[in-house]
Design brief:
16 strands; elongated
Length: 279
């Protein structure tokens, strides 16, 4: 790339599937190469460091986005079909992931975006067929049209810190009906695309309540013994046995879990053999 190049058309790297090496003239004041992996540019001539990734070599497998990058440009990682690990340096300043930036990244499964990320552009993660989860750590997020389009295995989109989420029109188009959106109850949800996934929203607060399982304390009443089967000595010995107490706690735990799905008759140590055989 000669020194005179100052900009590209935004579609310059669209559908570029096999480009793995670019050289830039040292005299170029706008573009440069980082780690033989990223083609980057300064968004403003006065910037001291480049802040936008324009292109990534298509054979990359693992990347860590530098903290000074504020924008990942259109098609920058499109068709990086070997990319299986996407990470961000601490104190990331990334704000924008642009049009189709990570389209057709078929090896990516789990992504965690930094707190600074605010805008996810049109089709940004479209056709990432094996993407299973994505977590946004930011407090204000805007999702644009088709940003997860045809991510058929996407099971969870999580916003643990978000206070405002904007679902732009058609932002949730072509998304699986089984995808769950985890959101805080106090988060403001706006945008024309919200109606497309309202039934798929789960709140963190409700999930925590569900996960809380009360373990009934093992009392003297919960361990009873028939006089015919051991008398008072056995009763006292078993009552004090740590293994028996542990078993009883586990039984109560299993009863609690099972009771979510069907009626459960609590196990009673006072049952005789005839009662245990009745179904």
């Amino acid at each position: 790339m000669p020194a005179s190049i100052e900009q590209f058309h935004f579609q310059a790297f669209s559908d570029i599937k096999h480009l793995n090496e670019i050289e830039v003239s040292p005299q170029n004041q706008t573009f440069s190469i980082i780690n033989k992996t990223f083609l980057v540019r300064k968004s403003e001539p006065t910037n001291k460091v480049p802040d936008r990734i324009v292109f990534c070599r298509r054979d990359v497998e693992c990347v860590e986005i530098p903290s000074y990058i504020k924008e990942i440009g259109s098609y920058a990682f499109q068709y990086c079909t070997k990319l299986n690990s996407l990470k961000f340096e601490r104190n990331s300043t990334l704000e924008i992931i642009d049009y189709d930036a990570f389209g057709y990244n078929t090896q990516l499964k789990n992504i965690v975006l930094p707190p600074s990320a605010k805008i996810i552009g049109l089709g940004a993660f479209g056709d990432d067929f094996n993407l299973e989860s994505i977590e946004f750590l930011g407090d204000q997020i805007t999702l644009e049209q088709g940003c997860f389009c045809r991510c058929n295995k996407l099971s969870v989109v999580s916003f643990p810190n978000a206070t405002k989420i904007e679902f732009s029109a058609y932002s949730m188009s072509c998304i699986s009906k089984y995808t769950i959106f985890k959101i805080r109850k106090d988060a403001e949800k706006t945008g024309d695309g919200l109606s497309e996934i309202e039934d798929q929203i789960k709140y963190f607060e409700e999930e925590k309540k569900t996960e809380k399982i009360k373990e009934p304390a093992t009392t003297n009443k919960s361990i009873r013994f028939s006089k015919e089967k051991g008398g008072s000595n056995n009763k006292n010995q078993l009552k004090e046995s740590p293994s028996i107490q542990k078993c009883m706690k586990h039984i109560r735990f299993l009863e609690n879990r099972l009771s979510r799905y069907e009626e459960v008759i609590p196990f009673d140590t006072n049952m005789n053999d005839d009662q245990e055989g009745d179904d």
